[in-house]
Amino acid sequence: MFAEFLKKLVQPTPARLTEIDAQLALTALLVRVARTDGYYAADEIMRINSIAETRFGLSHADAENLRTRAEQLESEAPDTVRFTRAIKDAVAYEDRVGVVEALWQVALADGVRQAEEDALLRLVSSLLGVSDMDSARARQRVIPTG
């Protein structure tokens, strides 16, 4: 279903993605992080929907539709390293920093900080070309205080 999209995304020098394609790719990355621990929880799904609504200005129904398509894309996407590097080459830095923040929101949605998720977030941040400082700031913005 997404073969052409993935082929375009993993070209040696991919073109910038359209806004809609970037939303799909970034949401698929959120899904990948949520699935990392082998348990794709309802609170993670709701968090992804909420992020899509807020970040992309979508209605609830459109956000659910995007997440559903992203789940399919994620299942067909290449390994995390190639997939994330492709996103890096096709999405502006500021958007990638926002994605790292959103990834932390998803990883922490179940209220438990998992070692697998931490490791994946460190890898993904690096592969997205997001500096350690910007990644740490993104994590701090989403960690609940209190």
Automatic annotation (TrEMBL):
Residues 23-140 form the Co-chaperone DjlA N-terminal domain. Gene3D superfamilies: TerB-like. It comes from the Bacteria. SUPFAM superfamilies: TerB-like. Pfam families: TerB. InterPro entries: DjlA_N, TerB-like. This is Tellurite resistance protein TerB. It comes from Roseovarius litorisediminis.
